[in-house]
Amino acid sequence: MSQAAVTARTPDVLASIASELEHAGELCDRLETLVTQLVRASRGEPLEIALQEAQTVDVLTQHLAALAHFTRRLASQDSGEEFDVGEAAAGVTLGGLASRLARATME
Predict the structure, then answer these.
(1) What's the confidence (pLDDT) of residue 43?
(2) For 1-5, 18-22, 65-69, which range has the lowest pLDDT when averaged over its residues?
(3) Disulfide check for 57: which of 14, 24, 32, 51 has CB 3.0–4.6 Å away?
(4) 0.85 exceeded by the pTM?
(5) pLDDT per residue over 22-61, tens digit each?
């Protein structure tokens, strides 16, 4: 890509970011399938470690989906310069993430 300035509307940029987050979530789904297959092939102590890692991949997938949802909600707001971050964060189902995203309004 050249060094020339590239401009875009904020909602379009946010929608693009949301799409990329969704794509990353799809890749995590594939990784989760692989980890699940490895867990099924494991025995003993490595099985417990593999189960924990499989849960981590699932949490990451949920996290990416929640970020994509949040970003899409921001993109849908035709707000000019300011966004209702609280409204967008209210749709996030992961409580800790929703709190951190909503905190952006306080900083």
Answers:
(1) 66
(2) 1-5
(3) 32
(4) no
(5) 999 999 989 888 877 877 776 666 677 777 777 888 889 9
The number of angstroms, rounded, from the C-alpha of 103 to the middle of its chain's C-alpha atoms is: 17
Please state, in angstroms and as integers, the Cα–Cα distance from residue 99 to each residue in 10, 41, 88, following that order.
Answer: 23, 38, 11
Please give the backbone phi and psi of residue 44, each rounded to the nearest 5 degrees, phi first: 70, -145
What one-letter code names the amino acid at 47? L
Taking alpha carbons only, the member of 24, 22, 104, 12 closest to residue 69 is 22
Gyration radius from the chain CA atoms: 18
Quote the CA–CA distance of 95 and 89 in Å, as a whole number.
Answer: 9
Q: Any idea how long the chain is?
A: 107
76 — phi, psi (to 5°)?
-80, -15
Match 């209702």 to its residue by tokens: 84
